[in-house]
Amino acid sequence: MMTPAKHYQLKLIGLALLTLSIQPVWAHGDENHGAAPVAAQLNHDQAQRLPDGRVLLPKAVQHRLQVRTVVASVGQVARSIELNAHVVMNPNRGGRVQASSNGRISMPKGGLPLLGSKVKQGQVLAWLKPTASTYELAQQQADLAEARSKLQLAEQTVTRLNALSDSVPRKEIQAAEAERTSWRTRVAAMAQVSGGEALRAPVSGVLATSDVIHGQVVDSSAVLFEIIEPNSLLIEALAYDPALLSNVASAAVQGITLRYLGGGSSLRNGALPLLFAPTEAMPLALGQTLKLTVQTREQRQGIRIPMSSIVKNAANEPIVWLHDSAQVFRAVPVTPLPVDGKTVLVTQLTAGSRVVTQGATLINQIR
Known about the structure:
Layout: H1 4-22, E1 48-49, E2 55-56, H2 59-65, E3 68-71, E4 74-88, E5 95-98, E6 103-106, E7 118-119, E8 124-130, H3 134-163, H4 170-195, E9 197-200, E10 205-210, E11 217-218, E12 223-228, E13 234-239, E14 248-253, E15 256-263, E16 272-278, E17 289-306, E18 311-312, E19 318-323, E20 328-333, E21 337-338, E22 343-346, E23 354-358, H5 360-364
Antiparallel strand pairs: 1-2, 2-20, 3-23, 4-13, 4-17, 5-12, 6-8, 6-11, 7-10, 8-9, 10-12, 13-16, 14-15, 14-17, 15-16, 17-22, 18-19, 19-20, 21-22
């Protein structure tokens, strides 16, 4: 028979068990109860950065951002090298006009040509008047006046001897004519020097440089005009590996193919100049600096993607975004190698990956 004390003890135990069964279980910070799926904790209606660094991008947002992808495939491309280059003049289709002596610029009839104007070969671009002191100018005028006086006397002598040709030996008439010719040449030369030097265009083309003003005093050998043919400009690159001279397969700049013309065998400021010509018209300016991509005859294996796929992460490292699932994108660090100025080669991706080619910059900005 159960005693009252025993009965009371059993009731207390039952009450305690009942309390434990209905008491809520509180999770503690130091206990691992298993994390709920990330997707269940997120708002699927807006773009957001996931805790693991991936980006959740709903389909509607993808359409608004115009995100485009391409399936990566492994292939062989030529090993490429990026070189510094600048635009130079074609020596056969351009020219420079320099001052042969010190002088003062004087405009020709019609005025000085303006930048960008078309000029013809032999056209007078400007006059170069010699700079001299007052005494020197007076002396030149005196010499010219004396030469003209001697020329006049020589002409009169020839006229008189021709009138007496029947009684005057022929050799005297020839000597007088030779002296007249000599004075004519001297007067013409002195008049030309006093009038100045005509600066003429050596070729036909477009005026690219004009460093003259009416009345300007210039020094000898100063470059006054540069004339170019816009569609014949060349691109000169600087290479530091002599083996590259015979290893160039092709080249490109800004996506336009270049034709390799050859390279120099003498160092210029520690580098070898390589000369290229565009295969199609492109906007170039004399002296413009460019980044040129040269493809060698060596082959390299990897995945070729557009340059628009390459963006920088917070650590300033190049990355590409992969379309992992319908709404999730993942960043992958890569080491891009130049190919042709529009595409790059990467080896950190696997074939079949969906690489973002448009909208990568916008995805990279999502926080």
